[in-house]
Specification:
mainly alpha
Length: 231
């Protein structure tokens, strides 16, 4: 991946792991080329906020069966649909990547907005920087919106009572990432029983893992920058 002129970073390490864990060595060159293709497609359209944090999802797109050019166009179509609905352009791009990986149609796109509104009514804001992709993951699930809202609310409340998840230790956004991952993970178990194909369930699981990794890498980078500035 470094030979393909992708820059060394925590994000690149996670992207490399995704490819190493899910592909045969004989396929590495092709997948890395596809990863670079998806990344270049995003960079061409959104130069200023496409960066190293997009490596993980570019790799997942590279691992998918999506054709690069049509896949990039679909990501842009979904991005255009949501760009006026959410404030963080970078997060909207990640949301679009998630939905493209999940082969989302117009019905799922409508579910994203319906789920956002239903969660807001319960004062759950899953449409922020790091949690927005998880809103897309939950919208992809074959579960009623009211059930998702109830389960996510319950998971959030239970987590907050656990040691290490208090308000002084874990921010609201971090808590929602854990709660949404637990909620989606429960649904994935049902998907593995036959609601959807194993391929789709695996993709959703990997999206959850990738988003956790992206947040950890970003937090680590900001912490290191703050430490350097203070010294």
């Amino acid at each position: 991946m470094k030979a393909a002129k992708l820059h060394a970073s925590d994000f690149l390490a996670v992207a490399a792991y995704q490819i190493a864990a899910q592909a045969e060595p004989s396929d590495f060159d092709n997948i890395v080329a596809r990863t670079r293709g998806f990344y270049d497609g995003m960079k061409e359209r959104h130069f200023f906020y496409t960066g190293q944090d997009d490596y993980i999802f570019a790799a997942m797109l590279g691992l998918s069966d999506l054709d690069v050019a049509p896949g990039a166009e679909n990501i842009e179509r979904i991005y255009t649909r949501f760009k006026d609905e959410f404030w963080s352009s970078n997060s909207v791009q990640t949301l679009a990547q998630v939905l493209a990986l999940g082969n989302a149609d117009d019905y799922v796109i409508g579910r994203v907005l319906a789920l956002r509104d239903a969660l807001r009514e319960q004062k759950i804001k899953l449409d922020k920087t790091y949690t927005l992709p998880l809103l897309g993951i939950l919208a992809l699930m074959p579960v009623e919106i009211d059930t998702i809202v109830h389960d996510l609310d319950a998971a959030r409340d239970v987590l907050r009572t656990k040691k290490g998840f208090g308000q002084m230790s874990v921010s609201t956004q971090e808590l929602l990432i854990f709660a949404a991952s637990i909620t989606a993970g429960g649904y994935v178990e049902n998907i593995k029983d036959g609601v959807l194909t194993a391929a789709i369930s695996t993709s959703i699981s990997n999206i959850i893992i990738a988003q956790h990794a992206a947040m950890v890498a970003a937090v680590s980078a900001s912490t290191a920058a703050a430490a350097a500035a203070s010294s």
